[in-house]
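Hey, can you fold this?
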Amino acid sequence: MEHKLKIYRNLAALFDSKGFLLYLVGGTVRDYLLGKELTDMDLVTDATPSEMKEFLSNADYTFEKYGSVRLKIDDIKFDITTLRKEEGYSDFRHPSKICFTKSLKEDVFRRDITINAMYMDKDLNIIDFVGGQKDISNKIIRMIGKPLKRINEDPLRIIRIYRFKLETGFEIERELNDVLELNFSKAKLINKDKINQEIRKSTHQEELIELLKYHGII
């Protein structure tokens, strides 16, 4: 963990020297708070991909139109995403419109659950707008915003939430749990490749597969 954090802090210092901020985000921050080994290193920045090209020429810019840049240092993968707002989910998966922003508070509301929506700066200070730290302490999985609206935006969140439940042992908040039980069939709308990606990410693959089979998703 220490080596990965050191590389992040060096990278953040580079961004800072160019006038930009760089934060750890999402599952990386969650796992740090839980004392788990860090795997993927997910980051956000107020720099756009075109701005990053000026000082990060060795990165992969394949998905730059989505604000996503990939970088490998010492065989450690870093996914760097420009802070953004999202609007509309006409295909039940992808936002219809993406707007880059400089605001963490705007970026946080495109995220799904509170424990995956915290940021950490280069001094390892936690920035938490949605009560993620409290929910980690209480071992609760809670949706950001109205659960039904967020599930309708992207039904893949159904599978993601159960994956995180299996991995953390946390309980799903009551309203969210009710929405999931009533809407599980919407996971059938998801591309099979996306479902398989979630299964591969899971540390409890057999349990997740059984759950999906039980509900007729696979």
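Oh, and this one too while you're at it.
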Amino acid sequence: MRNKEVVIGGLPVEISRKSNQKNIYIRVKPPEGNVTVSAPARVPDREIERFVLKKMPEIMKARDKVLARERQNSREYISGETQYLWGRPYPLQVVYGGTRGNVIRTPEKIVMTVPEGTETEAREALLNEWYRGELKQALEGAVLRCENRTGLHAEEYRIKNMKTRWGTCNIQKRRIWINLQLAKKPVECLDYVVIHELVHLLEKNHTRRFYALVEGFCPAWREAEGLLKEAFPDKSPGER
């Protein structure tokens, strides 16, 4: 059966039907917050409409998050933008002057000083290097906490700016990569990702045993993963 688009509560909704499906599912898709509904083949249109209207507050909240994420991704690194460090928002202040770039954090804001005429890409690179330093410093404590908690040990930890993963684990080399963007999330998220990747040293795949081990080492992992999925809605920390 072909997909069709209808308007429910003033919102365009794409409806698809599947003969082997038992329940109605709603999804808000990035980057534009499009709403899709997947429903069993025999469910009447009116029932789908009632279901969507009932869920409208949750749908609008999810759309707001998706659209806010998209605005966050479209950055120019200019004064007035919001940057995050360990889950706390800071306004960015860009000061032009001097011959070298520098970034500092005050109690109220993040101040970036760059030479006059510095391009957007260079401002982004400078800020990312500052985040790298912040993450590297915090990672030392996180590794100590998490390795003591799990009894597991990786030979090496590295930082990389990744688009779709919060962390990866090379099991053979016992090397763990941590996403640079974790410096923007609460530190509890960093601990969770480190534990998640360490557990891969015991269990390669995301099996029931894997998540049972993660649960034992990090009982609040679901809350941390929820925060991470706000940025990568379709990925888990170590998804391959």
